[in-house]
Amino acid sequence: MAPTGPRNGAPRNNTRSAASGKSATRGGIAKRRAGGPIRVDRDGDLDMDAAAANAAGGRGKKSNPAPAGSTRKSTRTNASSSRPPRPTTKASHMVAKMIQGGTGSLHSRISQGIDPSSRHTRSSRPINGTNNKTLIVEGLQHSKARDNEGGGLKELLIFLERKATTAGKLSHSVRIKKSQLKGDLVYVTASKEDAEHIMKVNGFDWAGTKVHITEADDQAPNGAEASNLSAQTQDVKENLRTMLAQRYDPGQKLLNLASLGSDSLLIQMNMFQESTPQKLFRALMVICDEQFKTAQAKRDAISSVTLAGNNIDDVGQVMTLTETFPDLIHLDLSNNSIKELRGLRKWQHRLRKIETLLLINNPIDVSNPSYKDELVSWFPRLQNLSGTQVRTAEQVAAAELANKPTPIPQSGPDFRDINGVGEQFITDFIRGYDMDRPTLAAKYYDDYSHFSLSVNGRSSHPPDIPLPQWGSYIKFSRNHVKITTTHARQQRLFSGTAVIQSVWQKLPATRHPDLATQFDKYIIDCHPISGLADLSGQSMAGVDGMIITFHGEFEDQDPETKVTTKRSFSRTIILGPGAPGRNPIRVASDVLTLKAYNPLPPILGAAVANAAVPVAPQAPASAEEVQKQQMLAELCRQTGMNEEYSRMCLDVANWVFDQALATFHEKRASLPADAFTVAGPV
Description:
Blueprint: H1 50-53, H2 89-101, H3 106-111, E1 132-138, H4 153-167, E2 178-182, E3 185-191, H5 192-199, E4 205-206, E5 209-210, E6 212-215, H6 223-246, E7 248-249, E8 254-256, H7 264-268, H8 271-274, H9 277-291, H10 295-301, E9 304-306, H11 320-324, E10 330-332, E11 356-358, H12 364-367, H13 371-378, E12 384-385, E13 388-389, H14 393-403, H15 421-435, H16 437-444, E14 450-456, H17 486-491, E15 494-495, H18 497-506, E16 509-511, E17 523-532, E18 543-557, E19 564-577, E20 585-596, H19 602-612, H20 623-639, H21 643-652, H22 657-667
Parallel strand pairs: 8-9, 9-10, 10-11, 11-12, 14-20
Antiparallel strand pairs: 1-3, 1-6, 2-3, 4-5, 7-8, 12-13, 14-15, 16-18, 17-18, 18-19, 19-20
Helix pairs in contact: 4-5, 16-18, 20-21, 21-22
């Protein structure tokens, strides 16, 4: 159970009358006292009362003969009164509908979705009828879509239908029958089945905000009732804000939500009579969302929450806490009614930063004392569980370091050239592509050569660099993610010298960095391959060739706008022996991929650049220095530490390798992140 307010004793209503000569009145539609009994239609919508069967006046309908031994009397009378008019089928159905729909008090009719007025208008139509349910959606006015045409309502409805269908794993699409925007609220009506799936979208992120969905009260969103509801809602919000302000300690970043059932202001507002505890708690979280707009603002304002003494037996009742404050560090659930682990299981994959969790004076301490081991595995940063230390800060840091993904280690380019063919081709190719493309194509490309271009518009790039325009390239792009039909893919695969020359003429002019002076702007791999097609037809097994892949950057100029743009590229070229009578080297395949500019990794680029710079000869090192360098390199390899920290570790151990390795394992958890290389510790 969730937090509840105090209950006042109330006298029980005795629906039975005292033992007297008077009959008890049960309400409903009174029978006619004169003019004969009400007849039933052929469908039997109304049942004839036994007393009405014996009433004088009117003539009853002839019934079937009574069974043997029955004392039932005939209902036929000899009264001389005229026969009352027989009610039509339509009238009978109307009366039956009133009986079945309920004719009790105004409150009961509203609770059943029946409009209390005698006639439905567009603004007083029942909200939660027999087959439909109306929901209230909040979040549109705080979203990025509010500036769209139509205020973003259309986009919100499409989002709700799509996400509800996906969340429910339905074979049919969820459909919203009607919607209405009133102030900050959106009223949507759907079938009861679809409305249940729409409720699953509650708390989802949309357009920079969270969507909050609640069931609508049985009041229409139009007319005077809506205006009164809006004013009343504002009063409730102000009172709840006041209550939260009284319970907030900014010094300790603590939000005290303990013992809500005995809060005097909530009792004065009759919150526990007019709203369920779950709805009350959801309303409190909505106000917190409005107060703290961003995740960082919530982290800065509130790090601790106490929910002690609220009679909570399942955290699902306060689930919105983890949606509003997912980065809580301290949480107090003491003095509640949690009996089993399943009462906490809904938080298993939430509150990943929680460090303190108090469950003191909950029945689970007696029913399942081993629950603490399970909770420790749920929350990776948990250190204090009900006053018991279950981890140290060092253990948390070591576990996070061990689980931290490390990038794939880069060892520099793999350049295995044969007789300088690769180096000569790359130099010639980059210069020719910038200066004279027709001649380059005529030299290396033939009728069996292929060229294709792919634009990757979703590649990573620095946030301070704007995305480039792709107008000059996009019509030639063969990106298989975007181009999915066979015909379109074939059209964008260019074969033959003449076709490739024609395409290259339509592409913007480029300027690559100079290979001789700016080699750090490139990553180039080159190695031999076998099995290429032999154009001379002499070898059925194929011939040897070479595959070259180089990554880098270039600047181009749009031929129409004359705008210069820097881009990153990757190019994979397969070289093979040329056809008889032509250039000895031919391009069998050329695949060019263009991306937004993103500099090469600095460490790898520096390593490549340093490899190309000649180093002055040094005096030979002593045997002791050589041994130290070997120990230093081995410690770096085994631990993943950089050279500086490895040398410090060896200095502490007086250059005894085993002792230095033991020191590393002892101090590993306390080492800073910058103590390790790109690959991280082994």
